[in-house]
Amino acid sequence: MWDADIVTTPRPGLRERKKEATRKALREAALRLALERGPDNVRVDDIADAAGVSPRTYNNYFPSREQAIVAAVTAEREARVAAAVGARPAGVRLSEAVTEAIVGQYTDPGSHDPRALLLITASPALRDAFLGTAAGIEHPLATVIADRTGAGQLTARVLAASAAAAVRVALAQWTQPVTGADAASGLIMVSGSLADLLRAALAPLAPVLDAASGARTQRSFPSGK
After folding, report:
1. Which CATH class is domain 76-219?
2. What is the fold, at CATH topology level, of the domain defined by 11-73?
3. Which pTM does this prediction carry?
4. Of 21, 74, 152, 191, which residue is most buried, by most CB within 10 angstroms?
5. Where in the chain is the domain with CATH 1.10.357.10?
6. Judging by beta carbons within 10 Å of its beta carbon (0-12, 13-18, 19+), is residue 13 exposed, middle or buried?
7. Tens digit of pLDDT for each residue in 159-217?
8. Domain with CATH 1.10.10.60 in the chain
9. CA distance 160 to 156
10. Distances (CA, A) of 122 to 73, 84, 156, 219
């Protein structure tokens, strides 16, 4: 049976810690420069120089400046979502565990500059990169769903991919740019409560998520027939 209390994560080695430190330096430099100059005035060379690495090293971590800027806001969210699901007690419905984990992590302001969201929503390229990060939760979420439910990898991946798609839809609606007369002012606004949008987008998945949990219960407690 799943027991989140006994799950441990091995401490990363020195090489991995150095790589993570470089990744963090790059994403923080990218966001800082974008806020100071505007994203269109930031070059990859500028980000690499600010982080103390070469442009070639930069390319080993991020495929574009947009990816680096967005990563400063979304960093490690994928792992935190999966960890939050795994930490829920075994008796909690899978749909509730997944929904609350996603809502909790996506509505946590974290430590990034509060101007970052405005920067992202004001730039079509950054907004697309931001929406694309939703797919990142699929792999770690599939792993924890498989562990928690005993579902096969295919089922777990389908469920996780569906959750990631729901998150992307909610984020797209939340960061929808202003259209019409107000668009000329350059204003960008978010649409409604992100927590409410995420819950509404994930709600249709509840029956299949809970059915996956139920399948494990039926295997654990056969009917005896």
Report:
1. mainly alpha
2. Arc Repressor Mutant, subunit A (1.10.10)
3. 0.78
4. 74
5. 76-219
6. exposed
7. 999 999 999 999 999 887 655 544 444 444 455 688 999 999 999 999 999 998 765 54
8. 11-73
9. 6
10. 15, 31, 35, 50
